[in-house]
Amino acid sequence: MRTGAIVLGDPKREELQVKEKKAVLAGVIDPARRDDFQDPLAELSGLASTANVVECGRMIQYRDLPDMTTCMGPGKVQELKQLCEATEAEIIVFDNNLTPAQGRNLEKELDMVIVDRSELILDIFASNAQTYEAKLQVELAQLLYFRPRLKRLWTHLERIEGGVGAGRGPGEKQLETDRRLIDKRIAELKKKLKEVEKRRALTVGHRRNETTVSLVGYTNAGKSTLMRAVTGADVFVADQLFATLDTRTRRWSLPNWGDVLLSDTVGFVRNLPHHLVASFRSTLEEARMADLLLHVVDASNPEAKQQIETVDKVLEKIDVDCSNMLLVLNKVDRCEDRSLVDVLRAQHENAVVVSAHTGEGIERLRQRITEKLGGGYVDATIETGAGNGKLFSFLAEHSEVTERTYDDENRVQIQCRIPKRFLLTLERKSDEQTTVTVIGGPSDPEFPYEDVEEMTPSEPTL
């Protein structure tokens, strides 16, 4: 386990990384979900491959609920033991998130190192973390995950216990010491992350006057490839899970609109460890503050429908507003059966079909993004006195000023693009010295006046 500065005692599992170890993949699956996946362990296999685990066997058990003691039933556990002996496996990787007791019982029963889904994902994140913030976030998630599992790491001292009047044994003392060290480090990491979050909030806040678009989606859906295709940015692209952990932002020029800021974010996966979601919450600040979300989907994946649902659930969990989101069906060049794409399009009528690799559909995507952004904005021409500082301040904060011209009578004409939700405030505050002309606005018969939301007391005023 990569835990930075923290120093723990020497546990039984001296090496918690899974790299280049032979592993049997195992999972307990609800029979009701049997038809949801063509290959129930395909994603676990992909995660294992990303972590450089050498897969040497698989075992699945279908049961309504995992066994509370060992996840798999007793008979299946014995079959698993025989499979590990036959394949000379070094570790067992479960597709389930095991409780500390289940992990401990399985290691006793099988005399092997057990790695569950959360630990595998944490190991991948630890390997891919590059920036200071990502390393802090991963270390915090690791410590929160391993703290309740410390007893499992100290099974080699469990037989050396203090008798009556002898006090506590060395195992118990070491557990206490390690817990104190972990608690201290967790507090340090949370403090450092709060400082990072403040800096990130300032950075995001400085972009308030910029139009922002954020890429979200399942891991390995092609978000970074799409970013490179549309912006030309030299971002890391790899056909592996969780290749991107850090938010990156690049400028992108859209037709009939201008520049927007496009951000790439960490990908999601089903059953993502909740500690990891909490730790990476600040990294996803870009998505929460974006004017438009592009939900990128690997349309060639047979489980695309389930992946869309997973992403929607995670976005809801971290309080991201998905009301202004565009679904992007990517990797259509990999679809041997185009009926998969047709089914997804039927389920999501407004989806855009693209291939970031070949460039197919990219121009259409640009047009749709411009349409989506334009649906929330209007172009306005404002004439007022050159000394109207309150109006200038309001426009600077809530609109994109594209042109400003002055005349000889100390008057100024401002061309701007402003969100519809601020339009009523702007017009209500107009006086005899100020006129507002909106292209496609209330003075225009085609302007959907009823779509402009009534201002609430919390809305800014002039």
Q: Which series of helices and strands comes N to C? A: EHEHEHEHHHHEHEEHHEHEHEHEHEEHE
Poorly predicted ranges (pLDDT <50, ≥5 residues)? 1-15, 154-169, 441-462
Q: Can you tell me the overall shape?
A: elongated
Number of structural domains: 3
Q: Helix share of residues? A: 25-40%
At a glance:
38% of the residues lie in helices and 19% in strands. By secondary structure, it is of the alpha/beta class.
Plain-language structure description:
This is GTPase HflX. One of its GO terms (cellular component) is cytoplasm. Residues 211-377 form the Hflx-type G domain. The protein is of the alpha/beta class. The protein has three domains: 1-206, GTPase HflX, N-terminal domain (Rossmann fold), CATH 3.40.50; 211-374, P-loop containing nucleotide triphosphate hydrolases (Rossmann fold); 377-451, Alpha-Beta Plaits (2-Layer Sandwich). The protein is 38% helix and 19% strand. The strands form three sheets. The protein has a six-stranded mixed beta sheet, with helices on both faces. It has a four-stranded parallel beta sheet with strand order 2-1-3-4, with helices on both faces. α1 runs parallel beside α4 (117-128), α4 runs antiparallel to α5 and α5 (132-146) runs antiparallel to α7 (170-206). 34% of the residues are buried. The model is unreliable at 1-15, 154-169 and 441-462 (pLDDT under 50).
Q: What's the SSE blueprint?
A:
Elements: E1 22-29, H1 42-50, E2 54-62, H2 74-87, E3 91-94, H3 100-110, E4 113-115, H4 117-128, H5 132-146, H6 150-153, H7 170-206, E5 212-217, H8 223-231, E6 248-254, E7 258-264, H9 274-279, H10 285-289, E8 292-298, H11 304-317, E9 325-330, H12 339-347, E10 352-353, H13 362-374, E11 377-385, H14 389-398, E12 400-406, E13 411-419, H15 423-428, E14 435-439
Parallel strand pairs: 1-2, 1-3, 3-4, 5-7, 5-8, 8-9, 9-10
Antiparallel strand pairs: 6-7, 11-13, 11-14, 12-13
